[in-house]
Recover the amino acids of this structure.
């Protein structure tokens, strides 16, 4: 397929997103490098072999192999290519499009809405206790060391949630995170994730071990306490070890960097970057090997997933799953096969006036049920503050 590059004066990516209302589309803002991609107009689902014929493909993969909940609208488990890609980086904007002319965008003022909504989930804490106890039982029996428990909390607004306004707030409020929104049919899955599952540049892979959390409070120590907290360090080490071992199945050598604090607006995480060199495998092969890491699923993986299937009372869909871009023939920016996949956390699924927000946390033997519940409430703030 032939794509043409047109420089454009359009400066507001949200105006692009807004104008393609009703179309299958993606909004992506990597605030670490300040690169925005807005894609719209599905061409088709492609295979990896077809990648060089397209500039970028959007990849998403459901958390579990199967997805039965229809609210997810067949989202995920495919590489999708689009007709229009609007790209903005280093102050320059371009269209990369399969059309012979660039779309005309009206740069209207992006609505800034304060939603009025109520929480409609009931019986949430007792359900959390059952999940927590189920996990603790599996830990005590020696089946698992760690399981990432999560909650799905439903909210209803007095009018449809205004996605453009929410994305705008997510970008403003989450410097350092990856802001994403994927609209298909009546559904929009969006969030501000701080976590890279895998990045590929040339033949180099990078992954984040991100686990261990501290809510910001009055003690101004930049989260340094986390670096000496035994429970959080143990949770974190489980993630490092598993990512390292998985990367070693595809890479000759894996370099584990020092653990440091990642600061987010309302909390701190322990983060360790892992690098590997691999001449043969694609980013999707690496992503499939890594997902879900013990930061999203648990350890050992299959047993932890079984525990989640037994005790977690809802379908995860794309929550905590790989989402992101794989580059095809994009001479302007990157090598074919490069890409960046994050995990879809600090996220929500929106259907008109209904919003389902997701948040999870790692549970190990030393975990306290109420403290972990509070941690999920802190993580839910990423979405709630943007409403
Ligand atoms: C699962 C989530 O977060 C993950 C769990 C963390 C933890 O248990 O400390 C930290 C970061 C994430 O890897 C979530 O936000 O939903």
């Amino acid at each position: 397929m032939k794509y043409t590059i047109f420089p454009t004066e359009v400066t507001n990516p949200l105006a692009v997103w807004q104008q393609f209302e009703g179309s299958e589309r993606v909004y992506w803002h990597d605030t670490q490098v300040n690169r925005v991609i807005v894609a719209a107009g599905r061409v088709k689902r492609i295979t990896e072999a077809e990648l060089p014929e397209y500039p970028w493909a959007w990849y998403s993969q459901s958390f579990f192999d199967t997805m039965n909940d229809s609210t997810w609208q067949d989202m995920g488990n495919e590489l999708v290519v689009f007709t229009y890609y609007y790209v903005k980086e280093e102050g320059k904007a371009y269209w990369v499009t399969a059309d012979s002319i660039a779309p005309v965008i009206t740069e209207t003022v992006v609505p800034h809405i304060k939603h009025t909504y109520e929480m409609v989930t009931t019986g949430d804490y007792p359900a959390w206790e059952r999940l927590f106890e189920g996990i603790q039982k599996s830990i005590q029996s020696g089946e698992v060391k760690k399981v990432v428990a999560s909650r799905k909390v439903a909210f209803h607004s007095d009018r449809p949630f205004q996605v453009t306004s929410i994305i705008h707030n997510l970008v403003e409020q989450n410097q350092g995170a990856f802001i994403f929104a994927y609209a298909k049919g009546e559904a929009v899955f969006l969030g501000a994730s701080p976590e890279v599952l895998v990045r590929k540049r040339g033949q180099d892979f990078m992954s984040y071990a991100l686990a261990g959390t501290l809510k910001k409070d009055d003690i101004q120590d930049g989260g340094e306490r986390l670096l000496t907290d035994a429970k959080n360090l143990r949770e974190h080490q489980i993630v490092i070890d598993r990512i390292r071992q998985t990367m070693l199945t595809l890479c000759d050598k894996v370099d584990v960097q020092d653990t440091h604090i990642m600061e987010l607006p309302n909390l701190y995480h322990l983060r360790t970057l892992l690098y590997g060199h691999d001449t043969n495998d694609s980013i999707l092969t690496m992503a499939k090997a890594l997902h879900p890491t013990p930061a999203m699923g648990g350890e050992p993986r299959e047993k932890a997933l079984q525990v989640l299937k037994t005790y977690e009372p809802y379908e995860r869909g794309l929550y905590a799953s790989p989402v992101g871009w794989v580059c095809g023939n994009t001479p302007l920016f990157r090598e074919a096969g490069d890409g960046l996949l994050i995990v879809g956390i600090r996220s929500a699924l929106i259907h008109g006036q209904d919003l389902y927000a997701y948040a999870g946390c790692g549970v190990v033997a030393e975990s306290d049920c109420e403290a972990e519940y509070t941690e999920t409430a802190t993580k839910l703030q990423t979405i709630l503050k943007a409403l």
About this structure: The pocket of ISJ is lined by residues 148, 150, 195, 210-213, 269, 295-296, 320, 345-346, 359-362, 379 (CB under 6 Å). Residues 128 and 373 are 7 Å apart (CA to CA).
